[in-house]
Design goal:
Largest sheet: 2 strands, antiparallel
Organism: Hymenobacter negativus
Number of strands: 4
Region (Disordered): 1-21
Protein name: TIGR02646 family protein
Number of domains: 2
Bound molecules: zinc ion
Helix content: 40-55%
Distance between the termini: 16 Å
Strand order of the largest sheet: 1-2
Length: 274
């Protein structure tokens, strides 16, 4: 994870259609608050046509450089991805795989600050409705009259929190630095085997880029340079181009737009971040 800057202005359907439907949801809740707490009720059902609008998704993707807000995978070549609600809109779980409490944060279903772009695995296989608070009993916001600023979420908010203060990486392995890091690794599945494999491959690719980037291809060739050119059937000029591209990959590996930038920054703190 890295911190994400949410751009302005807020995409069109949220302040217009989103605000109108939020007001309808709030009126439904006001009419019968108890009914909205009954398990399995769908009184406060939000409209995915609003928060899933193309303009919303496009702006989220641009802000996040097409990466998942949690795992930082560049996954859009093989899957659509979800518009994800940080505070779950339909119901919440305080405990991992615990009971689902209703209602959810229905009044934030169209709130730009509550929306992110995530891969389906982080969102659907892991986080889902899990939204634990450190002060659940005292400060859980349960209606649109309550103040979410009093809540102390255990999950890291990609826009508000600096993830590097709560979790870090030792090579490909993710480590928590406090309770919020621990909850986020579990809640977002940041230590799942498939993701660790992707991070291992990414680090190997960077090590290779660092090595190739150091090749000069001036005569007489170093034996490793000669082997590189012969194996890839490249001319010296093409080898120089490959070295320049490898150097660029290495130098930009910790940029916001780079895949797994959080892991790269933890391992190579001297690399520029922009
Ligand atoms: Zn993800």
């Amino acid at each position: 994870m890295i911190q994400i800057a949410k751009s302005r202005p807020i995409p069109a359907p949220l302040p217009t259609r989103g605000t109108r439907h939020r007001q309808q949801l709030e009126a439904l809740h006001t009419a019968d608050p108890a009914a909205c707490e009954v398990p399995d009720n769908t009184i406060l059902h939000s409209r995915d046509g609003i928060y899933n609008d193309t303009g919303v998704k496009t702006q989220l993707r641009a802000d996040q450089h097409d990466k998942c807000c949690y795992c930082e995978s560049l996954f859009t070549a093989t899957s659509y991805g979800d518009v994800e609600h940080f505070r779950p809109k339909a119901g919440y779980q305080q405990e991992w795989e615990g009971p689902l409490h209703k209602p959810g944060y229905y009044w934030l279903a169209y709130d730009w600050n509550n929306l992110f772009f995530s891969c389906q695995i982080c969102n659907q296989d892991y986080k889902g409705n899990y939204f634990p608070l450190a002060n659940h009993a005292a400060a859980r916001a349960k209606t649109h009259h309550d103040d979410i600023s009093q809540e102390k979420p255990l999950l890291l908010n990609p826009a508000l929190d600096a993830p590097q203060h709560h979790l870090t990486f030792v090579k490909d392995a993710i480590k928590d630095l406090d309770d919020r890091g621990k909850a986020s690794i579990k809640g977002y599945g940041l230590d799942r085997p498939e993701l660790i494999k992707s991070r291992v491959d990414h680090l190997k690719g960077l090590q290779y880029a660092r090595m190739v980037g150091a090749f000069k291809f001036t005569l007489p060739l170093d034996p490793r340079e000669d082997e590189f050119l012969q194996e890839l059937n490249l001319t010296i000029a093409e080898g120089k181009q490959a070295a320049a591209e490898a150097t660029r990959l290495w130098r930009e590996a910790a940029f916001d737009a780079a895949e797994f930038a959080g892991m790269v920054r933890a391992n190579f703190p001297h690399l520029p971040q922009q």
